[in-house]
């Protein structure tokens, strides 16, 4: 008895899941018959036969356009989930999966099977994630399209207000995707689509639904006085109801909704058009997709991308810019090949090429950033690049904007005995009088003391910022040059530097509340002297904002760096167009001020872990 009960408890939900849509189909068809009364099947057949060749060819062409746009939608889903599958293969599999599953029904099961069957190497779990992603995001995009169309063409009085609410909700969700790009449900972490992906999905949803509506419009008998602007809002609502119902091909709910919203259209004519539409848009594509699934050899899918994760240990010595090593902490990696390489960090909306290329041709490196952005549903940009790289980007049609200024020193020529550095001399004397002792940290750093100093600093200054500004982590700092400031036996401050044979670059500056005035000046001065002894050509004090229209504001950080009388070098933010530039600036600002929590520290000399893929467990839509 117990085993029988357990079996029933497992089977009942499964049976309900597949029997309920069939029951709903029967109910809706019954209501259709009740609403329109008996229909002359002969009259319906004659109206279908009376459609000219131009109507059938127009409907077929519109259907092709609709399914082509749905294939592009699938390519976006693959890029979001990081499957590394070619866009062409992803689109073909998506077209086949949707053509098959929208007619057979049970979209999550049939759509997942079709994608798994079509794409070699795709796991069933990933196929299910793709199907779920397409289902949920398409319904969201359809809701936006319905709201937009019903706001312009309200068939029913009062629907304009409802459409305005739907449009506001859609825009609110887009804003949420920007402000909170990762949704968290307990331990579950779901990266949301990027704004470029959302915009593309909205575009392809418009193309798909408008083309499908045009296919139906072609097949409505010519003598029916129905204009496309009247059919479109009714069609979109009927399509939405059909998708939510989960019935095979939306049979029943689709017809019932259209008949209710278009009462002025003769029922037999509308039924004739819907039957013809189901032949062209559902039956024919399903038969073709079924044949493909039976006989096709699975597509070759994988794409090999030339990129490497950021080393967790010391970088190679050929870096043109030492600050590139910040990608050990911000999730960046080096992309490129033997021609050129550049550090890239992927933010939710943009793929950011950091600084100048690590090596090679700047134009080739820019193209690698573009390829990375396209592969990840992001826009491309360059951040904190030099004037030379910005000039090359301009020649390629990009828009460069001066965004920051870097403070550069040349240790071999650095001297305190200049009028421009009189304030620096005074600060260093104050530190000397306070008994501050500066030393370079050895291989074993005082981690406990440094952690305490960083904690005090964060209480005073707030949470450390991200992207190109490092955050204290023992393993991260272990690969840097570190100078320590002691007062008696207490550590009161430290400064860390990225290192390469060509330059040192200031990264972390931390002091305690009790640190005397001039402590950080003394730390930097000691680093300059050490760099001069090591014959390092340049030492960067890193950059400060130099924003358009605002310039370089006289903040405390700017005054601190001015005391060293550096050479100020402009740095640029570059993007392909003004919209991408604004989006890149906003996304970088968000990531700087509200960075993601640091991942748990790892051994800097351990092998790189395998890259993690995004997960997305969702509902259904073929």
Automatic annotation (TrEMBL):
Keyword NADP assigned: no
Q: How does it sit in the membrane?
A: Multi-pass membrane protein
Enumerate the subcellular locations listed in this protein's record, separating them with semicolons: Cell membrane
- Give TM segment ranges: 15-33, 53-70, 90-109, 130-153, 159-183, 195-220, 226-244, 281-299
- Pfam families found in the cross-reference section: LPG_synthase_C
Major subcellular location class: membrane
Write the record's keywords in alphabetical order, separated by commas.
Answer: Cell membrane, Membrane, Transmembrane, Transmembrane helix
Instruction: Read off the InterPro entries from this record.
Output: Acyl_CoA_acyltransferase (IPR016181), LPG_synthase_C (IPR024320), PG_lysyltransferase (IPR051211)
Where is each Phosphatidylglycerol lysyltransferase C-terminal domain found? 347-575
Q: Which PANTHER family match?
A: PHOSPHATIDYLGLYCEROL LYSYLTRANSFERASE (PTHR34697:SF2)
State the name under which the record lists this protein.
DUF2156 domain-containing protein
| Organism of derivation | Arenibacterium halophilum
């Amino acid at each position: 008895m117990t085993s029988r009960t357990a079996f029933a408890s497992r089977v009942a939900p499964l049976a309900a899941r597949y029997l309920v849509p069939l029951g709903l189909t029967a109910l809706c068809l019954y209501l259709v018959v009740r609403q329109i009364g008996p229909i002359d099947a002969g009259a319906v057949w004659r109206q279908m036969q009376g459609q000219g060749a131009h109507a059938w060819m127009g409907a077929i062409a519109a259907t092709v356009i609709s399914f082509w746009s749905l294939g592009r939608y699938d390519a976006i889903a693959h890029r979001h989930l990081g499957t590394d599958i070619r866009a062409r293969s992803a689109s073909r599999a998506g077209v086949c999966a949707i053509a098959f599953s929208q007619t057979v029904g049970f979209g999550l099961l049939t759509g997942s099977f079709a994608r798994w069957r079509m794409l070699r190497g795709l796991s069933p779990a990933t196929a299910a994630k793709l199907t779920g992603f397409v289902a949920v995001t398409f319904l969201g995009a359809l809701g936006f399209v319905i709201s937009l169309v019903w706001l312009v063409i309200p068939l029913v009085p009062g629907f304009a207000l409802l459409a305005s609410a739907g449009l506001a909700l859609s825009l609110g969700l887009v804003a949420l995707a920007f402000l909170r790009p990762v949704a968290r449900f307990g331990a579950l972490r779901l990266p949301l689509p990027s704004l470029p992906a959302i915009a593309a999905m909205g575009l392809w949803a418009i193309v798909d639904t408008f083309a499908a509506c045009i296919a139906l419009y072609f097949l409505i008998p010519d003598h029916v006085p129905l204009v496309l602007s009247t059919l479109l809002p009714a069609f979109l609502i009927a399509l939405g109801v059909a998708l939510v119902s989960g019935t095979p091909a939306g049979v029943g709910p689709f017809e019932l909704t259209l008949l209710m919203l278009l009462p002025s259209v003769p029922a037999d004519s509308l039924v004739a058009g819907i039957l013809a539409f189901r032949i062209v848009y559902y039956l024919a594509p399903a038969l073709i997709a079924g044949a493909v699934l039976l006989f096709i050899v699975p597509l070759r899918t994988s794409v090999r991308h030339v990129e490497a994760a950021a080393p967790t240990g010391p970088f190679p010595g050929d870096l043109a810019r030492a600050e590139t090593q910040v990608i050990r902490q911000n999730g960046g990696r080096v992309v490129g090949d033997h021609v050129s390489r550049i550090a890239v960090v992927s933010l939710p909306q943009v793929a950011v090429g950091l600084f100048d290329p690590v090596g090679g041709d700047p134009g080739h490196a820019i193209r690698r950033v573009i390829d990375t952005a396209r592969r990840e549903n992001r826009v491309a940009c360059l951040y904190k690049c030099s004037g030379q790289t910005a000039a090359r980007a301009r020649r390629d049609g990009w828009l460069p904007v001066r965004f920051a200024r870097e403070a550069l020193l040349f240790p071999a020529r650095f001297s305190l005995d200049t009028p421009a550095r009189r304030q620096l001399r005074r600060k260093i004397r104050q530190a000397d009088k306070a008994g501050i002792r500066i030393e370079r940290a050895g291989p074993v750093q005082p981690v406990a003391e440094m952690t305490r100093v960083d904690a005090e600093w964060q209480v005073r200054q707030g949470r450390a910022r991200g992207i190109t500004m490092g955050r204290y982590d023992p393993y991260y700092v272990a690969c840097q040059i570190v100078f320590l400031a002691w007062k008696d036996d207490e550590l009161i401050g430290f400064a860390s530097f990225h290192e390469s044979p060509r330059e040192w670059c200031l990264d972390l500056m931390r002091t305690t509340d009790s640190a005397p005035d001039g402590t950080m000046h003394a730390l930097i001065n000691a680093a300059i002297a050490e760099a001069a002894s090591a014959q390092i050509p340049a030492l960067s004090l890193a950059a400060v904002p130099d924003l358009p229209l605002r310039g370089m504001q006289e903040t405390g950080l700017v005054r601190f760096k001015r005391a060293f009388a550096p050479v100020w070098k402009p740095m640029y933010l570059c993007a392909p167009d003004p919209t991408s530039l604004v989006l890149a600036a906003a996304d970088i600002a968000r990531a700087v001020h509200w960075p993601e929590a640091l991942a748990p520290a790892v051994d800097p000399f351990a092998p790189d872990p395998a890259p993690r893929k995004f997960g997305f467990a969702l509902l259904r839509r073929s």
